[in-house]
Structures are given as structure tokens and as C-alpha cells.
Amino acid sequence: MSTGQRGEPPSATAGAEDTDPRRWWGLVVIALAQLMVVLDATIVNIALPSAQHDLGMTDANRQWVITAYTLAFGGLLLLGGRIADLAGRKRTFVIGLVGFAAASALGGAAATPGMLFGARALQGAFAAVLAPSALSLLTTTFTDPRERGKAFGIYGALAGSGSAIGFIVGGLLTEYLNWRWCLYVNVPIAVLAVLGAFALLHDRPGHGGARLDVPGAALGCGGLVAIVYGFSEAQPRGWTDPLVLALFAAGVVLLAAFVWWQTRAPSPLLPLHIVKDRNRAGCFLTMMLAVIGMFGLFLFMTYYLQVILGYSPVRAGLAFLPLTAAIIIGSTQISARLLSHVAPRILMVPGMVLAASGLLLLTRMTVHSSYSGEILPALILMGLGMGLTFMPVFATATSGVAPQDSGVTSATVNTSQQVGGSIGTALLNTIATTSSAAYITAHLHSPSEKATVIPVGVVHGYTVAIWWAAGVMLLAGLVAGLMVTARAPGHGVPAEAPVPESAI
């Protein structure tokens, strides 16, 4: 779950909030809004084959439906936390809801691929405003430690179950209505949440001293967009094309300028002392690398199940449930129980090896693979591995942080997830489509062979990309083993630590 809170001291709110009988209804409103944000990470995956066919997207460009959302979300998340500080949580929360609903309606009505990509980017931008203010409202609404633990338990459970709900709802809406309803469904949810916010949530004034680091946001987000765009253009143009190389160079220069600016900005988006800590830097990098492989898997498996195996959207959504269940079990039943007894990397390194093993199993899939015999074991292995990794990464990255840095540190973990998702989707989609095209060109000798050669070529592209994803997972394990040197914390994950959003 995305975070960006700068919670006030409990003394500021305890007197009012402890006696507020409506605070649990307020939690329903906050959770409803956050569920909407989490759903959009997976609900569109199931609808993507239908949307691609309807709007005439190319295979190279289809990844922008996912990437536009994650890029805007991750690139603007730190700025969203600052906006919540400046304008006030409730006001920012409502603005985020209204904007997210409007962007969803625009995407549902999209007549061209570009219109859908733009709407998804707008959704991500408003999600970056909405998510930090939602969590900030939660921290200021529940000040009693026991109540706060329960509230965050409910809130955190949404991250684990949100993806499952997204896959199933996406399948139902796509199959029985239309893929556009996967976006339209956000409108009534947002309307309910806005009405609830006005009736149940208490506003708090913003901080006049908070400043927005707009140059930092422009440099950071611009650098990420240039790199992801470079990956997407590598498929049609080739990796050595001047435009592709220029995009990569521009991305590196912009990100270097972002780092330079953060050392001089009056109110930096990302205070560099946070990432200079070896354990935190290792956690951020491990999370980003892990999610690169995971988001690519979502994209390929959605197409494999629906296009190659002929699953309906609902059946495809249900096929992802074991992955989600394994992530929840790995996070809550294994990592959360062992984290107080073992060093974080003792969980993270085996977790990444397990996830890589699951991906390696998937490299053997063919156009005739069976779900129960070949796909299901791989999804369970990957889910357990990701679950083993998520919890210690989040707990280690946010432990021992000064109170004034807690919000930006949590937001940085989530930013690393969204950036990993953006890069992974673009890079692996490019590898898959390039490999498929090369295979089909080499093996297609006559038009009569299309029906057999093309599906085999498409699956070949998927397996090549999954090999790369497995390598990235192993690299994440290596990073965790070498950089995350923290010892066992001696206590469990704090009750207030939410499950990270990429646990979907």
C-alpha cells in the first residue's frame, strides 16, 4: 500500500478521536478508497486482451496500459505526500477521489489507445495524491495503539486480497459486460467514498511550512518516463537505434540531475540520507528488482491463459488466486512469524530463490501446457517466495527511521515497487515481442503454417522473457544477501506497518 504520511503527534488528536464513535465508519471510507487504488493494479490486466483487440493496440504498445499507471503513481508518490501535508489530508483525499473517478470515466470511454494511455496516467497521478492522504487520515484517526493495530490489520489485508478481488471482478466485468466497466466501476466507488469522507472524516489544517519540490518531481518522473519509453521503442526500432539510445541517455541524465537537485533542494522529495543507509538501500533495490519480474509475469500469464489456452476472463482471473493466496501465506504466516527470530536476509534470499524457481518452471510451458500440472506449481512457488520477501523488506526499510522521515521512507518503498513494475512491464514486453517476431520470421515458411507457428512463437517469446525475469529475481536475492546486513529485530513486524502494495 502506498504511504506518504507525516502523522501528527498522538497528543494532538487523542482527545478528540478517542471519543469519536464514527471512527470505524471512517475506516470503511478510507479502506474503500484504498481498495479502489489497489484494484486498478490488477483489474485491468484481465481486461487487457479485450481492450487491445477493441482499440487496435499493437503488442509493443499494449504494456502502456499498465505502465502509464505505475509510472505516474510511482513518479509522483513522494510529491503526493507533500501535497497532503500542504493542503490538508481530507481535502487532498477528496480531490484524489474525484480526480481518480474522472480519469476512470475517461479511460472507460476511450476511443483510441492514446486516450486510454492518457487516462491511465491520470489515474496514476491522482492515486499518488489519494494514497498518502488516505494513510495519513488513518494514522490521525486511530491514536490508541491497540485500535491502531486493528485498523492497520484491516487496511493491510486489502493489499493482500485486493489483487484477488481485482482479478475476479475484472474477469466478471469483462466477460459479462465489457472491458470498459473495469474502469467505470471506480466511479460509483469514488462517489460513495466522497460522500462518506464529508460525513465521517475530520479535516486537519495543512502545514504552511511544507514545500513542494516540483523540480525534483519533474526530473525524477521525466527520467523514469524516458527510460521506460526507451525500452518500449526498442522492440520496433532495435536496441541500437539512435532514438532508443537517446532516450536511455536522457533518462540517465535526468535521474542524475534529480540526485544532484535533492542535495540542494530546500524541501527535497527524497532526502538522500534515507537511501545512504546500506540496509534501506538494499531493501529498496531488492523490492524494485523483485517487482520487475512479478509485473511481467502478470502481463504474460494474462495473455497466455486467455489467448493461448482459451480461458474466459473469469476463469483467467480465478487462475491467479493461488498466487495471491501464496503471497498472503508467505507474508503473514511465515515471514511475520520468523522475522523476530532471524535476520531479514535469511527470509529474503530464499524468498527470491523460490520465486525464481517458480519462474524457471514457467520457462517450460508450451501451447499445450496443463494448468494443474505445470502452471499452478510455478504460481505457488512464486507467491510463497514473494511473500517471504515483501514483509522483511518493508519492515527493515522502515525500522529505526526518525519520526519526521517515516512517511517519506514508506513512500520510497512503494515508489520502488511502482518503478520496478513500470520498468519490468516495458522491458519484458519488449523482450517477449522481439523474441516472438524473430521466431515466427525464422519458422513461418508459408501462410498455411500460421495457425501452428504463430502461437508457438508467441509462447516462445513469453518463455524467453520469463528467463530474464528469473535472472532478475536471482539478482534481487544477491542484492539482499550482500546489502541487507541487519540482524533479527527481536520483535515482530510493528502492528502499524501495512502490507506493501506490490503484495498483489
SSE topology sketch:
Elements: H1 10-17, H2 23-39, H3 43-55, H4 64-87, H5 89-108, H6 113-141, H7 145-176, H8 181-184, H9 186-200, H10 214-237, H11 242-262, H12 272-276, H13 278-308, H14 313-319, H15 321-338, H16 344-362, H17 371-398, H18 406-443, H19 450-483
**Count of beta strands:** 0
Helical proportion? over 70%
Low-confidence stretches: 1-19, 491-504
- The biggest beta sheet, please? none
Give the distance, in angstroms, between the N- and C-terminal Cα atoms.
Answer: 10 Å
Question: What is the element string, with H for helices and E for strands?
Answer: HHHHHHHHHHHHHHHHHHH
Might you state the CATH topology name of the largest domain? Growth Hormone, Chain: A
**Arithmetic mean of pLDDT:** 80
The rounded Rg comes to 22 Å
Tell me the name of the CATH homologous superfamily of the largest domain.
MFS general substrate transporter like domains
Number of helical elements: 19
Structural class per helix/strand content?
Answer: mainly alpha
Short description:
The protein is mostly helical.
Task: Write structural notes for this entry.
This protein has 504 residues and is mostly helical. It has 3 domains: 1-212, Up-down Bundle (Growth Hormone, Chain: A); 214-265; 273-504, Up-down Bundle (Growth Hormone, Chain: A). Helices cover 77% and strands 0% of the residues. The protein is built from 19 helices and no strands. It has helices spanning 10-17, 23-39, 43-55, 64-87, 89-108, 113-141, 145-176, 181-184, 186-200, 214-237, 242-262, 272-276, 278-308, 313-319, 321-338, 344-362, 371-398, 406-443, 450-483. The relative contact order is 0.15.
